[in-house]
Structures are given as C-alpha cells and as structure tokens.
Amino acid sequence: MSFYESLMALEQLPFTELWKECGPEDVKRALAKDKLDEEDLLALLSPAAGQHLEEMAQKAQRLTRTHFGHVMQLFTPMYVADFCVNHCTYCSFSSIYDFPRKKLTLEEVEQEAAAIASTGLRHILLLTGESRRDSPVSYVKDCVTVLRKYFSSIGIEVNPLSQEEYKELAHAGVDGLTIYQEVYHRETYEKLHVKGPKRNFRARLDAPERGCQAGFRSVNVGALLGMYDWRQEAFMAAMHARYLQDRYPGCEIGLSPPRFRPYLGSFNPESDVTDRALVQIILAYRLFLPRSGITLSTREPARLRDRLVHLGVTKMSAGVSTEVGGHTGEGGTPQFEISDSRGVPEIREMLYRSGLQPVFKDWDILAESSI
User: Fold this and answer.
1) Dihedral angle at the C-alpha atoms of 281, 67, 7, 11, nearest 10 degrees?
2) How far apart are the first and last CA of the chain?
3) What is the DSSP secondary-structure string of 76-100?
4) Which pTM value belongs to this model?
C-alpha cells in the first residue's frame, strides 16, 4: 500500500458539503486538541476557519517556537539544466517553448557553487529540468560530487527516480529530496500535464515514499497552489505529509505551499489563492503537523515573507535565481518569476530584526567513510 490508495479514498470525500458544514465549533475543537485528525484539518481549511486566523496564528507560533526555537534555516536553489521532455502548461521549461537551453559543465557548476557559498549559505537545493536524457542520474551525481566541497547539505529537485537511483544519490552525498506533486486532483493533473513522462500521476505520487525508503534525511512535498481548489489541494498535501511522517519517523517530512507565478507562457490558474488563504494554509499545516518543517520560497513578495516568518515557517530561500547559471550572472530563461529578489545579507538582517536567528548550516555528513 502507498499513499495512492489513501488518496483514492480521500478523494471520495464530499469536499464542498464538508466545507459548508464546518462551523466555528469545529474550528475551536481542532484548536483545543494536541493531535489533530483528518476532520480537524478539514475544519482548519474551511471557510469558517477564516474568522479564527488570529487564534490559529497564536497557537501556530507557540508550536513553532516549541519545536524549532527562534531560528530560520536559509538555503538557495541552484539550477544546473533546463532541458525538459514534458509539456506542462504552467512552466517555462516545458518542451514546447523554444529558447536556448542550458546545461552547466562541471566547471560551471563549481563556479556557481563558489558564488553561492561566498554568501555564507551551506544548504543548497539542486534543480534540473525533467529529462533523463539530458540530466541523467550520473550527471546529477557528478554535480553533487562538486557541490560537496562547498555545502554541508544538498537537496535535489529532479524528475522522479527509482528507489535504487535515490539510494545511489544518497550514497553520493544527497541528504534531501523535494518533489512536488504539483496537483493532487487527478483530472486536473492529467489536463495540465499534456505530454511526457510527468503525465504518470502515480509514479510522481510515490516518489517521496521511494525517497524515504532510500534513506534520505529529509523529504519535502507540496502542491503548486492555484492549479485546483486550494482548500482541497492543501488538504491532500498535508495528508500526504502525515502519511509519510507516520511511516518513516526517521525521516524529516516537510511541506511547502508554493503559489503559481508568471512564467514564459500565458496559462492562468483556476483557483485564486489570496494572501489570506496562504496564511490559513500555513497555519493549518503547522497545527496539523507541529514537527514538520514548512518552507517559504521567493515566489512570495518581501512584505508578506517578512510577516510569515512568525507564523509557522521554518525554512526560507534567499538570494534566489531560477535561471540555469543565474548565480554567476550569465543565467538563461527563468523557470518562473520570483517576487522577493533580496540577497542573503538582506534576508539575514530582516530575520535579526524579527527576533530570529538565521541558520546557514545545521547539518553535516560526519560519516565520511560511508560515502
């Protein structure tokens, strides 16, 4: 059994009716509990919970400080290739777009790594377009070998791989996996992923669990908010995270709430995810999964990120470029537009002003002989 079976059962829920039936008493019941269940999560994502955001925020902040302290981990993504074989309707890297594609040589990877490391960051997320031909596991592994000289923690966000391939990368020094389902609503997923291996919903859905089984220290999941009803997508992502956390207690399971951003094409998302909705989602995540990390990216504007640091977020990106080679000034086509272009020093100062300690490194691989 995998989360796929759980998802098939969950998608039978009459969400529209359930949201309508949730009232203030359901939200208060959820707020009073220490361990929340499926019904509590529904209540916290319901329209009724919109009137209780302040109470949710107070408890979310208390839980965050209890489990994570007054700290914020910083990282940045590093794009090494934008070749992609998929046609996805919401991404600049889609195979239908004609622009000069790039793939960094290992020398260029080292230049990017040195530039990022000079900012003090020691945690990095390596990204590629989804193409086994252009960015095979061997290429990712070679990049990791270079990055290990500069970073203590290396996460990957690449196309879904087999358990054995994840093991191979873990052995090379990768300790974290980020893979978004993008859309949990299966009909919408099929509509938005027009062509390519990414159309295989099940292969993508099971990838985080393969990562857990491969031995990664951390696995991060999420939905690209805006593609379908945000309440249902947030519910499914949180249930996915709970499923993994329950079965793989030795792995840190995290959640991200990325919102759709402008890109090379003209697709407009179906669901309007307002700032208030995003706040409700983050608070619901924190209350439902008190020990899970929550990552906030530069898809969000600076003014909003500055406020959200107090409401459950534990990890932020800084000094971001979504272009291949973008950290050395010769980037390509961005995967999407970012909203917060502040560099690492500005984010660091913002966190200090907010009473938080920026963390550049909180993990290192000590068992060198095992790699």
Assistant:
1) -30
2) 31
3) EEEEEE-----EETT-TT-TT--S-
4) 0.95
Strands (E), 139-251: 153-157, 176-178, 193-195, 218-222
Residue 29 CA to chain centroid, in angstroms?
29
DSSP 248-312: -TTSEEEEE-PBP---SS----SS---HHHHHHHHHHHHHH-TTS-BEE-TTS-HHHHHHHTTTT
Would you say domain 3-359 falls under CATH 3.40.640.10? no
Q: Is the pLDDT of residue 317 over 50?
A: yes
Residue 293 CB partners (closer than 8 Å, separation 6+): 68, 73, 218, 220, 252, 254, 255, 314, 315
Q: What is the mean pLDDT of residues 293-317?
A: 96
Geometric angle at alpha carbon 23, from 21 and 25, rounded to 5°? 135
Going 152 to 158 to 163 to 168, the CA torsion angle's sign is negative
Beta strands in the chain (DSSP E): 71-81, 87-88, 123-128, 153-157, 176-178, 193-195, 218-222, 252-256, 295-296, 315-317, 357-359
* Residue 226 contacts residue 259 (beta carbons within 8 Å): yes
pLDDT, average across residues 9-17: 97
Region 143-147: mean pLDDT is: 97
Phi and psi for 47 in degrees, rounded to 5?
-60, -35
Maximum pairwise Cα distance, the chain: 60
Q: What is the pLDDT of residues 276-289, one digit of tens each?
A: 999 999 999 999 99
Amino acid at 251: C
Domain boundaries, the chain: 3-359
Inform me whether the pLDDT recorded for 104 exceeds 50: yes
Task: Compute CA 278 distance to the chain's CA centroid, rounded to the nearest angstrom.
Answer: 14
